[in-house]
């Protein structure tokens, strides 16, 4: 056996060294006690592995990030406001267009209605010209048959008018309204307050509430003293 081998065994017998779990060497001396050897490299490693805990406020980029977050929040608020305004504007445009379409649909036949009104006026004048005594006493059955046919035609025509929103305006004994009536003259009428329709020369017509022909009327006036 070599001399170095003998010295190694003698050292282990005398000092009784052992290796810890963490790799450090512990020596047992005959006098008792245990000493652990730690290398300088291990101390440096532990020091280097210790993380530095810097607060977020001490970071040089914290203030810059805060400004960016604030700018993004302001931009978000601005975009939301613009989006809501755009929605409101689009809704207003939709309502206006819907109203225009409805208006065009309701008054598209206005010109045609004005032409038919002339036909209704002619039928009305024809029935008014027939003497009532000729048809009431059945003196002229042919005239009565013609009269009944004209009245029936006029009634059917008025039903068609009503179906399409066309209505007569006969304002006798009503207060004069310049939106629906056209005054031809004024006259004093006993027992009538001023500004009352007393005579209707021509019946007016409205289409879905809009006046397409005003009624031609005479209006009462206050008596002169």
Automatic annotation (TrEMBL):
GO cellular component: PAM complex, Tim23 associated import motor
GO BP: protein folding; protein import into mitochondrial matrix
Keywords attached to this entry: Chaperone, Mitochondrion
Low complexity bias: start-end ranges: 36-50
Record's compositionally biased regions (Polar residues): 51-61
Record has Chaperone as a keyword: yes
Entry's Gene Ontology molecular function annotations: adenyl-nucleotide exchange factor activity; protein homodimerization activity; protein-folding chaperone binding; unfolded protein binding
Compartmental location: Mitochondrion matrix
Region (Disordered) residue spans: 36-65
Record-linked HAMAP family: GrpE (MF_01151)
Family: Belongs to the GrpE family.
PANTHER family: GRPE PROTEIN (PTHR21237), GRPE PROTEIN HOMOLOG, MITOCHONDRIAL (PTHR21237:SF23)
Protein name in UniProt: GrpE protein homolog
Record organism: Graphocephala atropunctata
Lineage: Eukaryota, Metazoa, Ecdysozoa, Arthropoda, Hexapoda
